[in-house]
Amino acid sequence: MKNENRPQRHLLSTRLMRLASFAAAAAIFFGAYWAWNNAGKPAEVHSISPAAVPVTATTVQPSSIDITRSGIGTVQAWQMANITAQVSGRISEIPFREGKMAQKGDVLVRIDPRPFQAALDQAKAKKAQDEANLANTQKNLSRDETLLTKGGFATQQTVDNEKAQVQVYQAGIEGDNAAIEAAQLNLEYATVEAPFTGVVSLRNIDIGNLVTPASIVGTITQIEPIAVNFTLPQADLGDLQSVAANGPPAVLVYDQSGKKLLSRGILEVINNQIDQASGTIRLKARSDNQDHKLWPGEFIQAEVVVRTEPQALAAPSEAVQRGPDGTYVWLVSADNTVRRQPVKISEIQDNRTIISSGLKTGDRIIVTGQYGLTEGARIVETNGAQAGQGQS
Q1: CA distance 384 to 377
Q2: In this model, does residue 217 exceed pLDDT 90?
Q3: Distance between CA 313 and CA 388 in Å, rounded?
Q4: Whole-angstrom Cα distance, residue 86 to residue 379?
Q5: Helices H, strands E: what count in the chain?
Q6: Geometric angle at alpha carbon 263, from 259 and 265, rounded to 5°
Q7: DSSP label at 175?
Q8: Are 353 and 320 in contact, with CB atoms under 8 Å apart?
Q9: For a 10 Å CB count at each end of the chain, is N or C smaller?
Q10: C-alpha–C-alpha distance, residues 316 and 183, integer Å
């Protein structure tokens, strides 16, 4: 059976080889014909348009912007006083509540007043005794002076002694008055009152303890108004002096991160000298602090408004790029393509950059997505915002 099929297989293989040779010849022929027919014709190029770059953009609009100089500092009480005794004695009462407001004149501490009241009563009694002795001596003097002038029934020595005694009692009464004043003052010192309205601290001494003039029961701090102490570089001194010449400049007080506005106040004091070690000038601002957002000892960031730009063209700072030739922004054309636009910067305020030249009102610029841009690139905006909105 195998020997009978061998000629058929040989015939099939021969036919397949002929067909393959014919197909190859046809391919060569048609390839040569296409090359001859298209000789000298330009090849067709099928271009693919690049995809639009997604960006965010904003329109530049004029706005009022405060130009500030910022520094770090701390909040301090406008006034602070120790709650101390001025006399020695035992504490009988501490009426104040820790951490609460106390009004000026409120009683903070009472010391047992009985010893001081007794001393006052004793001084008054001594004065009454001296006044009685003085009155009696003056009567004797007046009678003896009459007897001396009428008939010598009294001696000159007696009259002179009585005059001296009158002077002694008069001086004694003056001393009694001083003793009464001292006793009265000690009695008043037994009651410690708030010297101003403020917040009272935790107390250091409890009722029943003996105190002396060196004892500190607690402290009271005035927080309405409150002081903000901070520093600025000495290079800002000129701007500060210029704005302060027209009145106290405004001061904005932020939290330690510089993000949350806590209070607004005014600049009260520019220190009388520059710290040579740090090259800074110390400043003191005042805030009414009626909402108590500022607290003594708190770390803050303060900004002094040195001037206001009423019609400033400002761009988000992230929109401003820096290249070998300077600063520029990506400007959006009407056909949604972009080009580099050189700009000049006058101020950088927070996250806004004030442009002095290179942009005009209504220009649309790229804020984010610049990394994918080239000159003439087409863009698609994912969202929009308005630039240059100032703070009032």
Answers
A1: 19
A2: yes
A3: 6
A4: 78
A5: 4, 20
A6: 125
A7: H
A8: yes
A9: N
A10: 72
Strand partners, 80: 221
Bridge partner list, 269: 284
pLDDT of the residue at 91? 95
Instruction: Return the H-helix or E-strand segment holding 58.
Output: strand 53-60
Angle between helices 114-150 and 156-189 (to 10 degrees): 160
Vertex 306, ends 302 and 311: CA angle to 5°? 115
What's the longest Cα–Cα distance across the chain?
199
Predicted TM-score of the model (pTM)? 0.68
> From the centroid of its chain, how far is CA 391?
17
Q: Write down the residue that tokens 């009651």 correspond to.
A: 191
Strands of the chain, DSSP E: 53-60, 62-84, 89-93, 101-102, 107-111, 191-193, 198-200, 210-211, 216-233, 250-254, 261-275, 280-287, 299-316, 321-323, 326-332, 338-342, 344-349, 352-357, 364-368, 379-387
Q: Please give the structure tokens belonging to residue 10.
A: 């040989």
DSSP 3-state assignment of 18?
A: helix
- What does the alpha-carbon distance between residue 117 and residue 113 come to, in Å, rounded to a whole number? 6
Which pair of tokens denotes residue 20?
Answer: 């393959």
C-alpha 42/C-alpha 225 separation (Å) is 85
Structure tokens of 325?
């030739």
Cα separation, 91 vs 215, in Å, equals: 11
Enclosing H/E stretch for 159: helix 156-189
Q: Comparing C-alpha atoms, which of 238, 237, 290 is closest to residue 264?
A: 290
* DSSP single-letter state for residue 247: S
Q: How much is the mean pLDDT over the chain?
A: 86
Mean pLDDT computed over 343-348: 91
Q: Which domains does the chain have, with CATH numbers?
A: 54-64+311-387 (2.40.420.20), 68-76+221-310 (2.40.30.170), 114-189 (1.10.287)
Tokens of 105: 């004149």
Burial of 32 (0-12, 13-18, 19+ CB in 10 A): exposed
List phi, psi (to 5°) of 161: -60, -40
Q: 84 pairs with which residues across the strands?
A: 216
In terms of Cβ atoms closer than 10 Å to its own Cβ (0-12, 13-18, 19+), residue 106 is middle
> What is the spatial distance between Cα 238 and Cα 246, in angstroms, rounded to a whole number?
13
Joined together, the tokens standing for residue 45 give: 């190029």
